[in-house]
């Protein structure tokens, strides 16, 4: 189907790229559907609201930036999302002037079931993760970003 | 706002399926136990507000901005190789 995006104009998305958020996400509880579209050649994805063209987010694969990232998905979330085997995890990036200075929300990952396209932003309890981890301070940042002049 | 007094060990029932029990009081800190169905999400309010705020600040960046940043990322990865 074709969806409207303020940033990207009309874009064609496949049905399996449209995820259903039963409760929206915190701060945007009325937004129930987002298209999640990978950026080619990058660890990033766009998350575009279907009902609000001006609302989009940049997502990143947290395991690429922080290979030690881990959490236990609570049983009730596993059940709510109908997760059996496949699960996708992405985290929302808060952009600053440069990617390195931007931060990533490891406390509240977006968890997706690609088999039934159900998704939820879950909040980890007592994980030690925060809403703003500077990307350049994550453990894999050194291998992901070249320093100036090198 | 409904205001109730409860003693240690006493409970409040909300809507037949959520039970809140005062487990103990130490100085200014009250320990609360909550029994609720699994589908009810329970968060500390400041955590919930922090996530709402982070989401709001992360929304609706412009296309040019994002594309420039991703190009910058791809360039730095290329340089690394």
From TrEMBL, chain A:
<keyword id="KW-0143">Chaperone</keyword>
<comment type="subunit">
    <text>Interacts with translational regulator CsrA and flagellin(s).</text>
</comment>
<comment type="similarity">
    <text>Belongs to the FliW family.</text>
</comment>
<protein>
    <recommendedName>
        <fullName>Flagellar assembly factor FliW</fullName>
    </recommendedName>
</protein>
<keyword id="KW-1005">Bacterial flagellum biogenesis</keyword>
<keyword id="KW-0966">Cell projection</keyword>
<dbReference type="InterPro" id="IPR003775">
    <property type="entry name" value="Flagellar_assembly_factor_FliW"/>
</dbReference>
<dbReference type="Pfam" id="PF02623">
    <property type="entry name" value="FliW"/>
</dbReference>
<keyword id="KW-0969">Cilium</keyword>
<comment type="function">
    <text>Acts as an anti-CsrA protein, binds CsrA and prevents it from repressing translation of its target genes, one of which is flagellin. Binds to flagellin and participates in the assembly of the flagellum.</text>
</comment>
<dbReference type="InterPro" id="IPR024046">
    <property type="entry name" value="Flagellar_assmbl_FliW_dom_sf"/>
</dbReference>
<keyword id="KW-0810">Translation regulation</keyword>
<keyword id="KW-0963">Cytoplasm</keyword>
<keyword id="KW-0282">Flagellum</keyword>
UniProtKB/TrEMBL annotation, chain B:
<keyword id="KW-0694">RNA-binding</keyword>
<comment type="subunit">
    <text>Homodimer; the beta-strands of each monomer intercalate to form a hydrophobic core, while the alpha-helices form wings that extend away from the core.</text>
</comment>
<keyword id="KW-0810">Translation regulation</keyword>
<dbReference type="Pfam" id="PF02599">
    <property type="entry name" value="CsrA"/>
</dbReference>
<keyword id="KW-0963">Cytoplasm</keyword>
<keyword id="KW-0678">Repressor</keyword>
<protein>
    <recommendedName>
        <fullName>Translational regulator CsrA</fullName>
    </recommendedName>
</protein>
<keyword id="KW-1005">Bacterial flagellum biogenesis</keyword>
<comment type="function">
    <text>A translational regulator that binds mRNA to regulate translation initiation and/or mRNA stability. Usually binds in the 5'-UTR at or near the Shine-Dalgarno sequence preventing ribosome-binding, thus repressing translation. Its main target seems to be the major flagellin gene, while its function is anatagonized by FliW.</text>
</comment>
<dbReference type="InterPro" id="IPR036107">
    <property type="entry name" value="CsrA_sf"/>
</dbReference>
<dbReference type="InterPro" id="IPR003751">
    <property type="entry name" value="CsrA"/>
</dbReference>
<comment type="similarity">
    <text>Belongs to the CsrA/RsmA family.</text>
</comment>
């Amino acid at each position: 189907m074709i969806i409207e995006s303020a940033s990207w104009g009309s874009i064609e998305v496949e049905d399996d790229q449209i995820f259903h958020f039963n409760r929206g996400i915190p701060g945007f509880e009325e937004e129930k559907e987002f298209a999640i579209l990978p950026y080619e050649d990058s660890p990033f994805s766009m998350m575009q609201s279907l009902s609000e063209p001006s609302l989009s987010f940049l997502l990143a694969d947290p395991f690429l930036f922080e290979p030690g990232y881990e959490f236990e998905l609570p049983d009730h979330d596993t059940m709510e999302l109908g997760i059996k085997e496949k699960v996708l995890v992405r985290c929302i990036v808060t952009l600053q002037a440069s990617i390195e200075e931007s931060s990533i929300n490891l406390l509240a990952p977006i968890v997706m079931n690609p088999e039934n396209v159900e998704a939820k932003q879950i909040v980890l309890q007592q994980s030690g993760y925060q809403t703003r981890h500077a990307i350049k301070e994550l453990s894999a940042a050194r291998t992901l970003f070249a320093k100036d002049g090198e | 706002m409904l205001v109730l007094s409860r003693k240690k060990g006493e409970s409040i029932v909300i809507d037949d399926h959520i039970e809140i029990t005062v487990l103990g009081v130490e100085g200014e800190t009250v320990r609360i136990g909550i029994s609720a169905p699994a589908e009810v999400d329970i968060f500390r309010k400041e955590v919930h507000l922090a996530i709402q705020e982070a989401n709001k600040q992360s929304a609706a960046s412009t296309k040019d901005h994002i594309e420039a940043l991703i190009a910058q990322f791809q360039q730095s990865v290329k340089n690394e190789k």
